[in-house]
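[DERIVE STRUCTURE TOKENS]
===
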Amino acid sequence: MSEQNKKFYLIREDVLPESVKKTLLIKDMLDENPKLSIFDAVKAHDLSRSAFYKYKDTIFPVDEKTRERNITMMIQVNDSVGLLSQILKFIASENGSVLTIHQTIPIKDKTTITISLNATNMDLTINELLEKIKLMDNVNHVQLLGMSL
């Protein structure tokens, strides 16, 4: 499968294999201490170097701070005057930069808003952002559709 055709998934941590969890711990360890060798880091977590190299470029926490975080989320809402404006103001107040917005035509007083934003300068984690939007009045469901790191 070519690099462009690979699919990406969001998966809960508790269902990850131990080798993948250890790879994440080792990556954190190496980020915190750049002088640490990979050999010493994998040894500290009882993981083979080959397993580390297999997973290191394929697993990234959703909340990881990176130079650029673009996310796309779908928000299902009741059709309420000013709600989109309220959501956009909240994103701006948290230093998010909206890239695209798409809102469907309301059907039975419900509509779906899809927002892509650059979350690089946000202090909130992605999960915190989704939770805070979910708590707004007239918001029924919020889902992360994708992200690029």
